[in-house]
Amino acid sequence: MKKFEGKKIIFFSAAFFNYEKVIVQQLQNFGATVDYYNERPSNSTFTKGIIRVKRNFYQKIIRNYYQNILNETSAKDYDFLLIIKGETVPVFFLKQFKIDHPATKIIYYGYDPISEYPKIANILQYFDKKLIFDRKDAVEFKMQFRPLFFNEVYLNKQETTDFKYDVCFVGSAHTDRFLVGEMVENLAKKLNLITNFYYFSNSRSVLLLKKILDRNLKKIDLAKISYDELSHIQISEIYQKSKAVLDIQKPFQNGLTMRTFEVLASGRKMITTNKDVINYPFYDKNNIAIIDRHNPVISVEFFDSSFIPLSEELLYKMSLTSWLEDVFFNEDDSFWG
């Protein structure tokens, strides 16, 4: 995409299942120069926890980390600063960066609901452009509504009727996800459907602590938890073997998960707990079944019909390429309503 040729971008994001690497690679493929920084001083489980629970204890480390970045970048020219999530980014950094780089366009993108990270609302005033994946937050905080995207690894246009599984799930074991997943899997088995459910946690010790503190995780079966993170290629291979994929968003989340876009790009049906999916242009009851997370019901008839392929226009608008174009250049969000 010629719009990105020669552009100089500084990009901050927490590490999230290598999506930050996918974004950097695509920008570089388009001819941009990218300086990437993890928004956290460390990606360790301890650092993530302390930032969210007792950030003040970690404040000096955060400040030193961002001051060093200011020192490294003060003499460089940038066309754009992109920050995704921004949980750790301090106000002093945004203020000083703007002083050092007055011509740089500063962009924020949120892939988590602000209710989950309310401190983010305090830094929004320092951005020239603000986008978020959640329709309700877009209205409340006067941001541009822009849903997520799919990684090109998942794109599949080949039809098949040779499935190993009827329904699968791959995802982190958080909030009530395990409980909902167990209900759905048990329902599926009663209907003689073949299942493949893979729950992931990046730390056994943290999961054990959450099992004590979080009522949703008290009943979690540790024997069903894996500590090996699957690659996107491995996940896409599971999707290709499955007729439908289960999607369980966080209970307080209105925006659609990345999984939504990846499943549909894979040409696979989706069972989801997110009722807001009916408001998106790709919604089709043939392809997407909505269930109640507290009382899920699945119909065997949903598995009888084939996936109806999405149009080229829809697939493009759901792609990473279109997402990057909207985040950096487009102000019109009318396509997504």
How would you describe this structure to a colleague?
There is one protein chain. The chain has 337 residues and is of the alpha/beta class. It has 2 domains: 2-149 and 319-336, Response regulator (Rossmann fold, 3-Layer(aba) Sandwich); 152-316, Rossmann fold, CATH 3.40.50. Helices cover 32% and strands 17% of the residues. The protein has helices at residues 19-29, 45-53, 59-73, 91-100, 135-140, 177-190, 204-213, 232-240, 258-265, 312-318, 320-328, and strands spanning 8-13, 33-38, 80-84, 105-110, 129-132, 144-145, 165-172, 195-200, 225-226, 242-247, 269-272, 288-290. This is Lipopolysaccharide biosynthesis protein.
Jot down its keywords.
337 residues, alpha/beta, Rossmann fold, six-stranded parallel β-sheet, 11 helices, 12 strands, 17% strand
Short précis:
This is Lipopolysaccharide biosynthesis protein. Helix content is 32%, strand content 17%.
Q: Strands, helices and their partners?
A:
Blueprint: E1 8-13, H1 19-29, E2 33-38, H2 45-53, H3 59-73, E3 80-84, H4 91-100, E4 105-110, E5 129-132, H5 135-140, E6 144-145, E7 165-172, H6 177-190, E8 195-200, H7 204-213, E9 225-226, H8 232-240, E10 242-247, H9 258-265, E11 269-272, E12 288-290, H10 312-318, H11 320-328
Parallel strand pairs: 1-2, 1-3, 3-4, 4-5, 5-6, 7-8, 7-10, 8-9, 10-11, 11-12
Structural domain count:
2
| Structural class assignment | alpha/beta
List unreliable stretches of 5+ residues. Answer: none
CATH architecture term of the largest domain: 3-Layer(aba) Sandwich
Radius of gyration from the alpha-carbon trace, in angstroms: 21 Å
**CATH superfamily placement of the largest domain:** Response regulator
SSE order, one letter for each helix or strand: EHEHHEHEEHEEHEHEHEHEEHH
Could you give the count of β-strands?
Answer: 12
Strand sequence of the main sheet, in spatial order? 2-1-3-4-5-6
CATH-defined fold name of the largest domain: Rossmann fold
Q: Write down the CATH class of the largest domain.
A: Alpha Beta
Largest sheet, strands/sense/barrel: 6 strands, parallel
Question: Ends: how far apart?
Answer: 25 Å
Mean pLDDT: 91
Number of helical elements: 11
Helix content class: 25-40%
**C-alpha geometry:** globular
Share in β-strands: 15-25%
Organism: Frigoriflavimonas asaccharolytica
Protein name: Lipopolysaccharide biosynthesis protein
